[in-house]
Amino acid sequence: MPEARIGLLAVVDAAAEADAQGLGWLTDAEQRRLQAITAPARRASFLAGHWQARRQAGQWLGLAPDRIEWATDAQGRPRLCLAGEALPLHLSLSHSGDWLALVLAEVPVGIDLELPRRARDWEALARFAFAPEECRRVQAAPDEAARAAVFHRLWALKEAQAKRSGAGLGARAARTVCAHPAQAADAEAWSWSCGDGALALAAAPGVCWTLEGAGPGMGVAAGWRYAPAMAAPIQD
């Protein structure tokens, strides 16, 4: 099997490309879901994600995008298929504002994009959803902007891990797993600053990935590994 790799895409207004293709590429199930969405921005995000997933997978595998079908696996994660058979790629998407983040890989993968729209009490939110060691990281940040950045980075890493596993993320589950800084060779997750928020993806140690496109003000990738809360030393 060739070495696993990840294609990551972050774009603005990708729905414009999807609209140019018409809607004939949507499955019957997707058509029904689209008809149930009334908010224009949400419809645009739906079309952007479903078309971009097909386009990226098609480029990877040498297939016409409109031949690729959208489905879900037993854990509810999206999968791409050809003639009813799952393609050898795992998929995860995340939308925030006008931006779409998408990742494909030959191993289970999860991605989360968090672009805050308003100020919140980040310490209170951390106490509700984070382990004590993570709360201390938020509290130790020097100002409001830094606390928001730490909160969104940690939350995006949790969401990415939950999507990778297919288990979902509730407040109780969120408090049981922490991300800790890791060297690139050992990392199973990566994060980027993105505007006032964060982008994170979770895959597997040793996976190679490439970045196509860039979100607003994306910084340099940082590597992470997950561990049970309090099971690893805190590294701020």
UniProtKB/TrEMBL annotation:
Keywords: Transferase. One of its GO terms (cellular component) is cytosol. The keyword Transferase applies. It comes from the Bacteria. SUPFAM superfamilies: 4'-phosphopantetheinyl transferase. GO terms for molecular function: holo-[acyl-carrier-protein] synthase activity; magnesium ion binding. It holds the Pfam family ACPS. Gene3D superfamilies: 4'-phosphopantetheinyl transferase domain. The keyword Transferase applies. Belongs to the P-Pant transferase superfamily. Gsp/Sfp/HetI/AcpT family. This is 4'-phosphopantetheinyl transferase superfamily protein. It comes from Thermomonas haemolytica.
